[in-house]
Amino acid sequence: MQDLRLIFRYGRPYHRDLIAAVALIVVECGFEMVIPTLMATLIDEGVPAQDLAVILRQGGLMALCAVLALVTGLLYARFAARYANGFAAELRKAEYAAVEKFDFANLDHFSGASLVTRMTTDATVLLNAVNTGLRPLVRSPVMLCMGLCMAFLLSPRLTVIFLVAAPVLGLMLGWIVSRVAPLYGRQQRAVDRLNGRIQESLTGIRAIKAFVRGEWENEQFDAVNGELCDASTETFRHAVLNTPVFQAVMYTVILCIMWFGGTFILDGSMQVGQLTGFLSYVLQVLNSVMMFSGVFLQMTRSLASARRIREVLTEQPDLADAAHPVAEVPGGAIDFENVSFKYNRQAQKNALSGITLHIPAGATVGVIGGTGSAKTTLVQLIPRLYDATEGTVRVGGRDVRDYDLAALRDAVGIVLQKNLLFSGTIRDNLKWGKPDATDGELWAACRAAHADEFLRRMPDGLDTDLGQGGVNVSGGQKQRLCIARTLLKQPKVLIFDDSTSAVDTATESGIRRALAELDGVTKIIIAQRISSVQSADMIVILDDGRLHAVGTHDELLARDSIYQEIYYSQMKGGGVS
């Protein structure tokens, strides 16, 4: 229940609608409770005496109560819908804001498919719980209390039947809920896996078709789809027991009331109208309780969704600003002082171990090494995408943890290994680097990244629509646009994480020349090709997360075996120019 209390805080902006909806339910119940009493008077006084005035009066009052109950019900629906949809919108907004604050380490805890499910399916479960559950949740106890009181006034003896049946019904519902509750969590996890498979298949649809793996993907989808089907079947196999169990108790109660009520009528201690009114109250109460039992199961499912949403909302960002953060990065000098790092603090082996390195401001540094040597991990510590597990990373002479996180990342431009563009125009994407950039600045950045040559061939130029994820441009064009976007930031530190792998050597040479003209900017270039780094002021070689060697191209070629091996293998393959 703590999960639900946390989640429903997000409905506070709409609390007036909730209060109005609850009040209207109570008023509606009051009107409905009066109808059986009016009907009992009509049957016991108006019908035997054939008193038309009593019949018309009581009938008119019953009709008026029914109309007023209908009006209050319609008003309730309006306020409840406003509250439910407003609450769900605030909840999704809070989840999205929480995810936007996540650091890379936080995102490692959740899969993308799981986050999508938590923001859509789980939020919708709670929305439906409010939409369909608020009415019976309030109405059932109100009707139960009012109905029992009115029924007791009509016949205290028959009311005892309720007191016997209620515990039996409660025990049965408790057993059903205890079986269903864990199954809802399993069902939502199966939805996560299904969404993950769909997301992966749609993202890689071109590769699937290129390798003719459609049949295999269908088999994988069938597996996770079947898992969800089995989980849902198992869940609802227990959940549907609610209706027959309740109906068995309800019809047993009605049968007992008819039996004992008929006996009371025969011995003259009860009238037909009283029994009719009593049965009306019984049906109203039992229908409300039946609706409540359905809501009880829905709340059980809501608890599973609320728990999953709470995990997102309460996840604390792994990185935090200092108490008095520094708002400006003074320069581009970078120092690694005995830095070690592991992605998981429980991991036995470090991804980086004992890195000590000084990079002067304005220097051009190449970083090379084999696959898995932690090149990307090293540069991710500079803009503080992760924090070092041990040691200190300094930028501009200060520990990166002393800076305001936004200021640090503004001063460090990084072109990630995976190039990502967003839906919209080229202009929209480039302005991520500088929102107020003029057309002149945009074209200057594009020229430096050698993106202008293909942009000028496009009919709409900077206003060309890229489509979702930049599907309308090639891999090399996407890389150059990402480089231009980063150059617009005018950072003090510029990091290229293997960001020219999809462009030809001539274009790469042009980009290197443009970078060389950037005065005072520290440039770190991760590359697989030695031609990309051989003109750098220093070259850093990483091997299995350790600093293997540092030097210029000539120094390393003369004395380092790993560098020589990479160089001569690329020379034979024509990789060095």
Description:
The chain has 577 residues and is of the alpha/beta class. The chain folds into two domains: 2-313, ABC transporter type 1, transmembrane domain (ABC transporter transmembrane region fold, Up-down Bundle); 334-572, P-loop containing nucleotide triphosphate hydrolases (Rossmann fold, 3-Layer(aba) Sandwich), CATH 3.40.50. The protein is built from 20 helices and ten strands. The chain has helices at 2-7, 15-46, 52-101, 104-107, 112-119, 121-154, 156-203, 205-210, 214-239, 242-266, 272-313, 375-380, 405-411, 426-430, 439-448, 452-455, 475-487, 505-516, 553-559, 561-572, and strands spanning 334-341, 352-359, 364-369, 390-395, 398-399, 412-415, 493-497, 522-526, 538-543, 546-551. A hairpin with a 2-residue loop joins strand 4 and strand 5 (398-399). Helix 2 packs antiparallel against helix 3, helix 6 packs antiparallel against helix 7 and helix 10 (242-266) runs antiparallel to helix 11 (272-313). The two termini are 66 Å apart. The model has no long low-confidence stretch (mean pLDDT 83). The chain crosses the membrane at residues 21-43, 55-77, 137-154, 160-181, 245-266, 278-300. Residues 334-569 form the ABC transporter domain. It holds the Pfam family ABC_membrane.
Topology, please?
Layout: H1 2-7, H2 15-46, H3 52-101, H4 104-107, H5 112-119, H6 121-154, H7 156-203, H8 205-210, H9 214-239, H10 242-266, H11 272-313, E1 334-341, E2 352-359, E3 364-369, H12 375-380, E4 390-395, E5 398-399, H13 405-411, E6 412-415, H14 426-430, H15 439-448, H16 452-455, H17 475-487, E7 493-497, H18 505-516, E8 522-526, E9 538-543, E10 546-551, H19 553-559, H20 561-572
Parallel strand pairs: 3-8, 3-9, 6-7, 7-8
Antiparallel strand pairs: 1-2, 1-4, 4-5, 9-10
Helix pairs in contact: 2-3, 2-6, 2-11, 3-6, 5-6, 5-7, 6-7, 6-11, 7-9, 7-10, 7-11, 10-11, 15-17, 19-20
Organism: Candidatus Gemmiger avistercoris
Domain ABC transmembrane type-1: 19-301
Membrane topology: Multi-pass membrane protein
